[in-house]
Amino acid sequence: MGTAPAVTVNPASAAPPTPALLVIDMQNTLVAIAHRASATVAAVAGLQARARAAGAPVVFAQQQDEELEPGTDGWRIVPELAPVAGDTVVPKAAPDSFLGTELDAVLRARGVTEVVVTGFATEICVESTARQALSRGYDVVLVADGHTTSVRPAASGRYAAPEESVAHHNEIYRNLRFPGRRVRVLPAAEVGFGRGTPS
């Protein structure tokens, strides 16, 4: 049986974070069914510009499966958020962007201690990935207006309405206490990417 990798703990009193922007599943097929799609894309685009200007890593988690087949238009990241030279794209096949991927290795290689989480869908890939980031030793910023979920018809069962789901998860993370980690919920306009300085 293999030995689990050591987890680096980032206590609140430690040095200021080194952040990376994580953009989850902002792909054509998914953004086409997203609640507040244009506003969410705009918020993430602004974060990308600031992260790149500050020299902070921009990392994309890109779902691929039978519905999002690599190379198809629906699988591609939306043009407004397209990766540029220096960004990293991590393929994934599960809601947890760390599971069976190189995401953890990519972040650690860049000295990242805080993950700024954005993307689709709030209750699935965003939630799964944010929790795993905490379990793997990263501080987390959930961008309040930088994640979204699918539009739901009124007859779609007992799902929460999209705006309620986003607000619900934002409130959970505002009140989440995770030993040795700093967890924050910030609007995109208040997120900074200064390396070694408070974000």
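(the above was protein one; protein two follows)
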Amino acid sequence: MDGDYNNKSPRPHKPKPFAPVDFEIFAGGIDPSRVSEAAHMAAHALVHHGRESDDPEVTRRLVELADKQGLEAVAEMWAESPARSLPGALWRLYALRAATQKDPERIASYFTSGKEVAQVSKVVAGVAEPPGATEMTDMADKILSGAFEGDFDVALERFAAFCRVVALGQVNHAEQAHHSNETHASKLTKNSHRLIKTAEDLEHAAAAWRRGELD
């Protein structure tokens, strides 16, 4: 979950996976209102229709939609959405999944380090149990394919807890690297702050979902 993104650069023709620390509001789009409408429709199709239907055919079609159109293409629409909206929340899940798949060993290292700090300081006491990197990826796969059958608000809170633990790990690594590589340490600290913001957005989305207000 390291990296920089310049939002003045042109959007790539084929979307690349973005890490949560790279979230920016992208410029462009032929018709922003149509993009927003499509983003919300896709988000609701995956989360609401998949949950509300007992018909396995619905889930199959949702999975095929992502396969044919490409989950990256669907997720790119969500990148335009407000952070605290349903498509905005799904974009963050997609990006967490993509970042973890891109560099699983590094993310696992941050998570392990962060969880040790969290257990000692009880920083994440009272919040949802954070999933490990593998469990987080599996849960994101189910949500993004419309096959998730659990409590969506709890899932969002667990993703938020994952972000907080990884952010703690980044801070821990930054402290260790401060004297040997100050530039890297500064980058890790900045990334951890952005990841905490992602956690806050997901926690807000979870609360809005419980109130029936996440759109």
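Reviewer note on protein two: The two ends are 27 Å apart (CA to CA).
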